[in-house]
Amino acid sequence: MSSPDMVPELQRVLLSKEGLGVFAVSVVGLVIFLAVEAYKTNFQKIAGIPEVPNASPFIGHMGSLGGRLDKNDGTIYSEWATETGSDIYQIRVGNQRSVVVNSWALMKEFWINRSNTLIDRPHQPGFLDKLGVDLTGMPMTDQIRRCRQAAMKALGKPMWPKYYHLVEPSSVGLVKSLYTKGQNGEKPIDVYYYLRQVVFDLALSLTYGSRYGAVDDEFMKNFIKSINAISAVRSSTANFRHYVPLLRLIPERMNETVKAERTRAAHVEVLMKSLNERIAAGEDIDCIVTSLDDDKLSEEEIHGTCISLLQAAPDTVASGVYQTIAWLCTPSGQPTQAKVVKAILEAYGGDRDLAWRMAFREEKVPLLVSLYKETLRYYTFAPFATPRRTVKDIQYKDMFFPKGITMIMNAQQVNHDPEFFGADAMEFKPARFVGNDSPLPHVAFGSGSRICPAVAISNRLIYALVMRLLLAFEIKEIDGPGVRRPNIDPIHFSDVYNQLVAHPRFFDSCFVARDPAWLEIITSEV
Ligand code: HEM
Q1: Separation of 462 CA from ligand 1 center, angstroms?
Q2: 31, 196, 390, 400: which sits with the fewest CB atoms below 10 Å from its CB?
Q3: Which cofactor does it need (predicted)?
């Protein structure tokens, strides 16, 4: 039959009794399919724990998550704990049934006491499958275990002496820039990008043996941009597509993650080329890539490990220092600046040079240790940690959690739990942790089997950078046209609501040298 004849023939068939019947059955079938799909979850409702009411078809509770209500997921989880009257409840994230835990006691029960059961990560289809080896996002396979071990080794204390020669001059460079560019306190300055440069420099060195200053800035900016574009999607509930299977049937144009991954891979290639050229020229470079043989990792695993570290390092540590400064420079923080400087000098018998030299090498000032712990507790940079998936069934009291269920820790709430931290949990108390040597003072780094492998090095970097900044400067909040004031609220310090990692709001502050003559001497080192 020729094609012009086909159209009327098709019309005839469709409008015939049989045709209409088939059409009606298809419509009914489609409606039933959609009705089932709208409420389908990967696990049945769990008996014994409340479910948050008002789930929507297909997306479940996602309508309130992912920053859609201008609140981060942790804040919404706390509201649901109040609404359900329970610190543990279940929700639907698209088709993924998930259990949310909101208290220190329950975090301990699951994340610590059942650490090895909560060792997997939930799958995020449409994201993770675009990335290759990804330490933070993947289930704990043998491969990920090997990569995690290599990362732990690179970040472990025995390796730190190798990094002093990197961070010490970088931090001197930081102080020098703040002094000169901030015109000794005359000009307000945003310290964030300087901090990020110090941390990224270290991360680049320990992974690809390269340094920020060694490659041109535009290259680095694009590299960080691609890294951030990927971090923005990780475990975020902003994209319905990752949790609603039907949406993934709709073809997608070039996925943002794929674009970012290509840029990221191109940058890694340049770093690798430069590393290989330096090795060929006889340079002895000690970094994760050159330790490939020692750690028995394949090239793909090595890159996956390095990228995972580069991915996680710069903004988290920089934010820790930045938000400590935010609090210290406000009127509430000013007296603490003076107290910390006094405590530093006392710890080093009044020898300011010695204190300066030892900043990265030991944590000798309990008030400063307490200050950084309190910052990380009070301002929870990963408000809902990173979700986990169980590898075994769990029976807890009368509740049964099947193997494979997603467990979410509301870290922001756990870090402010009055039952554990006391009635002043919502206050910032710099000396809160003095005399408290608990290995888990807060859950800013998560807890248990997949706790951040960079806890100790991150703590030390924050400690040392704050120590050097306070020895060098009196840091002042400033008011004036166009000047941004710091936000020190424990929840609203960040306006990044749709991502896994919060970012402090940007602010300007003034850095006034405590002793300009001394500062000139110590910054003459670089
Ligand atoms: C203040 C700084 C930091 C904070 C607050 C932080 C927070 C976190 C959190 C909450 C997790 C999830 C833990 C869990 O599931 O229990 C995590 C995992 C991770 N972090 Fe960090 N982090 C920081 C710095 C860093 C740095 C500097 C690096 C790399 C050099 C890093 C690398 C990683 C990696 C690779 C993972 C995934 C571990 C795994 O899944 O096995 N983090 N971090």
Answers
A1: 14
A2: 31
A3: heme
Per-domain residue ranges of the chain = 30-525
DSSP bridge pairs for 101: 88, 409
Residues 6+ apart with CB under 8 A from 321: 195, 461, 462, 465, 466, 469
372 HSE (CA, 13 A, CB side): 25
Give the type of residue at 135: L
For the chain, list residues with pLDDT below 50. Answer: 1
Q: What is residue 229's predicted lDDT score, i.e. its pLDDT? A: 86
Name the pairing type of β-strands 388-389 and 473-477. Answer: unpaired
316 CA distance to ligand 1 centroid (A)? 8
Ligand 1: atom nearest CA of 320 is 1
> Which atom of ligand 1 lies nearest, measured to the CA of 155?
30
Helix axes 299-329, 256-280, angle to 10 degrees: 110
- Residue nearest (by alpha carbon) to ligand 1 atom 41: 450
What does the pLDDT read at residue 293?
64
Strand order in the sheet with 388-389: 88-93, 96-101, 406-409, 388-389
**CB distance 493 to 377 below 8 Å:** no
pLDDT in tens, 160-216: 888 888 889 889 999 999 999 999 999 999 999 899 988 888 888 888 888 776 555
| pLDDT at residue 1 in the model | 46
Q: Which atom of ligand 1 is nearest to the CA of 446?
A: 16
The hierarchical CATH code for the domain 30-525 is 1.10.630.10
Question: Probe ligand 1: pick from 445, 460, 494, 500, max atoms within 8 Å of CB?
Answer: 445
> Residue whose CA is closest, atom 28 of ligand 1?
313
CA dist 500 → 101, 307, 312, 322, 382 (Å) = 16, 17, 11, 18, 6
Q: 354-399, pLDDT tens digit by residue?
A: 999 999 999 999 999 999 999 999 999 999 999 999 999 999 999 9
Which residues are annotated as part of the binding site for heme?
452
Report ipTM for this prediction: 0.99
Q: State the pLDDT at residue 3.
A: 52
Give the residue, by CA position, lying nearest to ligand 1 atom 16: 446
Q: Among 235, 452, 466, 501, name the best residue to mutate to test ligand 1's pocket (greatest count of ligand atoms within 8 A of Cβ).
A: 452
Query: Residue 386 and residue 122: Cα distance in Å, rounded?
Result: 9
| Ligand 1 centre distance from Cα of residue 136 (Å) | 8
Helix (H, G, I), strand (E, B) or coil at 395: strand
Mean of pLDDT over the chain: 91
User: What is each CA distance from 31 to 23, 28, 101, 288, 337, in whole angstroms?
Assistant: 12, 5, 36, 55, 65
